[in-house]
Amino acid sequence: MTWHLTSRQLTDYSTGRADDAIAMSVEAHLMHCATCRANLPGDDDWLQSSWADLRDVVDRPRRGLLERLLTALGINEGTARLLVATPTLYRAWLVAMVAVLGCALVTAYTMNGGSLLFYFLAPVLPLGGVALAYGRTVDPAHEFTGVTPMAGQRLLFVRALAVLVPALALCTVAALLLPGRGPEWGPVAWLLPALTLVAGSLALTRWLNLGVSSAMIAGGWLVALAVSTVERRAVPAHFFAPEAQGAWAVALAATLTLYLIVIVRAKRA
């Protein structure tokens, strides 16, 4: 290890004053630097109490159906446990997402051109779940999961994937229920934009809090839609046209590459 954390960085991290981006970098560094781990300020009594509480929480519950299913699919027990222990706000977001998609479907059947509401919302709905899947401000168990070997970008990626799968499944079901007027590719036109926005949000966590990056990406999407409705030469539906799908594919590849670079740098830190 060629560099070490400063005393201020260690103090900010141990007292919870560091933001999520800095905290993840510090955690990644501490995994590989014994010197900085030894210099990390700590309260021995609090640490012993925290580990006792952690063992009590982890050892007490039996494995649920979802956890057993994940392990049957080849996911190791530690990863499956972390996936099942999602924040409670995430479950509330799933309920809200079902309600929003239901409203979008009603609009699609009752208003002329109402299907556009679904296409406008579908790309940003997964962002809400990703923002609520990881972080000190939304996860009561973050202090526990933060001390696991999977903490940082790896846990963020696993949690985001666990959110993305049900979100895409719900949007796909809603897309298939849309009125049968329009091109055959219509039900999947939202998919690449949605994946690109999520990948962009994850890539920005190198510099920003996950909630902030998700809000910025969602806000940018809504602004782009608003501008396209005002600009006479632009139409919001053009964001989902076949010629736009190639651009979305390129953007997705670029953002995924950037996120992989973020993960590699976090491991080396």
UniProtKB/TrEMBL annotation:
<keyword id="KW-0805">Transcription regulation</keyword>
<feature type="transmembrane region" description="Helical">
    <location>
        <begin position="185"/>
        <end position="203"/>
    </location>
</feature>
<feature type="transmembrane region" description="Helical">
    <location>
        <begin position="116"/>
        <end position="135"/>
    </location>
</feature>
<feature type="transmembrane region" description="Helical">
    <location>
        <begin position="210"/>
        <end position="227"/>
    </location>
</feature>
<keyword id="KW-0812">Transmembrane</keyword>
<keyword id="KW-1133">Transmembrane helix</keyword>
<feature type="transmembrane region" description="Helical">
    <location>
        <begin position="247"/>
        <end position="266"/>
    </location>
</feature>
<feature type="transmembrane region" description="Helical">
    <location>
        <begin position="156"/>
        <end position="179"/>
    </location>
</feature>
<protein>
    <submittedName>
        <fullName>Zf-HC2 domain-containing protein</fullName>
    </submittedName>
</protein>
<keyword id="KW-0472">Membrane</keyword>
<feature type="transmembrane region" description="Helical">
    <location>
        <begin position="89"/>
        <end position="110"/>
    </location>
</feature>
<dbReference type="InterPro" id="IPR041916">
    <property type="entry name" value="Anti_sigma_zinc_sf"/>
</dbReference>
<keyword id="KW-0804">Transcription</keyword>
